[in-house]
Specification:
By secondary structure, the protein is mostly helical. The protein is 76% helix and 0% strand.
Length: 444
């Protein structure tokens, strides 16, 4: 049996194992992910010590990026819920957009937020608003979660300054400004495909927000509209300003102002400030708020952090056994035109979990092939970058930390998350590459 076929079978077995043991037998996802990572390493012939090292490194690297962000986001979410701030936000959004368009509003909000903010962080920041809108509108949380997730995901992969499209553009020598402009254009089909998937399919799964109906009794008068949005809006603005400050043109200079924005706009600092603003949602700040409510928020974050880290462990093992590289090398033999970068990127993404890694690896692999593929012009290179971005959405599943953030913050079991998040990412990625292919027929 060839190495590629063996790795493919290992990959299929791991996916089947996790689905079976979590959905059918009730094994906790944290244990299922760690066990599957060990099984994957053993079956692929990795030394046991190296397998365990990869598990530890993957866990640490994942939580290094979003562990504290998850904890701070959970604190903000819990205080917003207990204070009535989330209810006030939901009322405000529904008043502006109307109850019938609240899902579309979250999809578009997600797209805008994830231009400067990583999709993981964006989902965490907006999850309390998602839950409040679901409760208020009586629409299943699965619908709001899927629409928000796909909106965030679309701009995350298509529109710099997130690192994936930036690195891809750099590897292929494409102007970043062009990637931003065209990325916004070609991401629209993905955003709306994700929205329609949410409202037409995700509604089949009834996830009811379980917060106590008396959520505002501890704070009989709802907080003001402005202060209710500040724990979410202020961190997003700070993170956006950091992204602008880090542009190659250095719009804020390279001195103390840039340093200030880099510090304040780091997700950890920005969400710490968000926690500070959330304290103003209650009339009287007490030990109950700054200790008990914070503690309860951290309790809910603990399980999410562990599951997300375990997902990172599995992703690291799959990377070490070279599943993505083998798939990419095999697919590069086929002349699929503009679909080739998409397919290779999708193989990397599906195999190892990270959209950023998929974009960086695929762009490095494709760069020497551009002339032979007929994409050596400036616009041809641009379309290849966008094709790689579309492929990096396909698909978000158990080895992707974003999969676990979405599922755990939306009360989805693994089976439901596969149907909403995983298939949704497949549909949005395909919608993106169809738009790119149509453009290529016109301009190339």
């Amino acid at each position: 049996m060839s190495e590629g076929m063996a790795l493919f079978l290992i990959f299929v077995f791991i996916v089947a194992f996790i689905i079976l043991f979590t959905s059918k037998l009730g094994l906790h996802p944290f244990l299922a992910l760690l066990i599957s990572a060990i099984i994957g390493g053993i079956f692929a012939g990795m030394p046991l010590t190296k397998t365990l090292q990869a598990i530890a490194e993957g866990f640490g690297l994942t939580l290094k990026n979003i562990g504290i962000v998850i904890a701070l986001g959970s604190i903000i979410g819990y205080i917003l819920e207990k204070s009535g701030g989330a209810v006030r936000m939901a009322e405000s959004v529904l008043k502006v957009v109307g109850e019938k368009r609240s899902v579309l509003a979250m999809s578009i909000t997600g797209f805008l937020v994830s231009i400067p903010v990583f999709c993981d962080s964006g989902f965490i920041i907006l999850s309390s608003l998602n839950r409040a809108l679901s409760k208020r509108s009586k629409i299943s949380l699965s619908v709001f979660a899927t629409a928000l997730s796909m909106g965030l995901y679309s701009s995350h992969v298509f529109v710099p300054p997130t690192p994936g499209p930036l690195a891809s553009a750099s590897n292929l020598g494409v102007d970043i400004g062009l990637v931003i402009l065209m990325g916004i254009v070609v991401s629209m089909p993905s955003v709306f495909a994700g929205y329609f998937w949410a409202v037409k399919y995700a509604k089949k799964f009834n996830i009811t927000v379980t917060e106590d109906d008396s959520i505002t009794k501890e704070n009989e008068v709802l907080p003001g509209r402005f202060i209710s949005f500040m724990p979410i809006i202020f961190p997003v603005v700070l993170i956006a300003l950091k992204s602008v400050a880090d542009f190659p043109s250095h719009p804020f200079g390279s001195g103390i102002l840039m340093t200030l924005f880099d510090f304040a706009g780091h997700p950890i600092t920005a969400l710490m400030i968000g926690v500070f603003f959330s304290f103003f949602l209650v009339k009287k700040l007490s030990k109950k708020v700054i200790n008990d409510w914070v503690g309860e928020g951290l309790k809910s974050a603990g399980v999410i952090i562990l599951i997300t880290g375990a997902g990172g462990s599995l992703g690291e093992v799959l990377k070490e056994i070279r599943v993505g590289i083998v798939f990419g090398d095999f697919l590069s033999r086929f002349n699929l035109g503009i679909f080739l970068p998409f397919v290779i990127s999708a193989a990397f993404k599906t195999a190892q979990g990270s959209s950023t890694v998929a974009m960086i690896t695929t762009s490095a692999l494709i760069a020497p092939l551009l002339g032979g593929l007929g994409f050596d012009s400036q616009f041809g290179r641009l379309l290849v970058v966008l094709s790689i971005s579309a492929g990096s959405m396909v698909v978000s599943h158990i080895n992707d930390s974003y999969f676990w953030v979405v599922s755990q913050f939306s009360d989805m079991d693994v089976s439901t998350a596969y149907k909403c998040q995983t298939i949704g990412s497949l549909i949005t990625g395909i919608a993106g590459i169809i738009g790119i292919a149509l453009i290529s027929l016109i301009v190339l």
